[in-house]
Amino acid sequence: AQSVTQLGSHVSVSEGALVLLRCNYSSSVPPYLFWYVQYPNQGLQLLLKYTSAATLVKGINGFEAEFKKSETSFHLTKPSAHMSDAAEYFCAVTAYGNKLVFGAGTILRVKS
Amino acid sequence: DTEVTQTPKHLVMGMTNKKSLKCEQHMGHRAMYWYKQKAKKPPELMFVYSYEKLSINESVPSRFSPECPNSSLLNLHLHALQPEDSALYLCASSQDSQYWAYNEQFFGPGTRLTVL
Questions:
Q1: How far is residue B25 CA from its own chain's centroid?
Q2: Burial of A86 (0-12, 13-18, 19+ CB in 10 A)
Q3: What tens digit of pLDDT does each residue of A40-96 get?
Q4: In whole angstroms, what is the distance from residue B84 CA to residue A95 CA?
Q5: Strands lying side by side in the sheet with B64-70
Q6: Of A25, A53, A58, B80, which is the most buried if we count CB atoms within 10 A?
Q7: If you count residue pairs, one on A and one on B, with CB atoms under 8 Å apart, how many are there?
């Protein structure tokens, strides 16, 4: 069964520093992977998705993620954190029947 | 229009009340979803509709009753809820095609439900 594990429930970075949010997947078939962001009291917004076309995926707001099959990882990065990036981030993988399986989430805190 | 709308934004109800949540999209998507999200947890799938037919029910209690009157609308009827059902209820939609696996889901802002 498809699943994702997000390492670190909370990540804190200084403004301008590198953001790295970790996601490892488990899948018996080639996975389709997503990163979503959720701001407080809002719905989820898609940041980027991996669909096997390219291993380095660029998303919105300066985020990107690299698919590494050898490491079963799909970590999310941003070179320079901004205060507005503070939110909760979810990694997700599609499972059979239109199902989207989410990781537990990582709350990103950005310090000024 | 790339928006999923949900009404109401907030709902407070007693355990004997009957209420409904509404979701609407005009992106031509043929798959629609209901999720439940408790505080500090990821969304949990409740129901999936594909071409207006219920395709997945994740063993949700019968006090939650989904309805898809047409391809743009999705309702969630609530009756005799329990306080533990208090949560953020999210609606989402996606294209439903043979390539369903990589079709992203578009989420609405959610309805914050409180059951007293």
A1: 12
A2: middle
A3: 888 999 999 998 778 899 999 999 999 999 999 999 999 999 999 999 999 999 876
A4: 27
A5: B4-7, B18-25, B73-79, B64-70
A6: A25
A7: 58
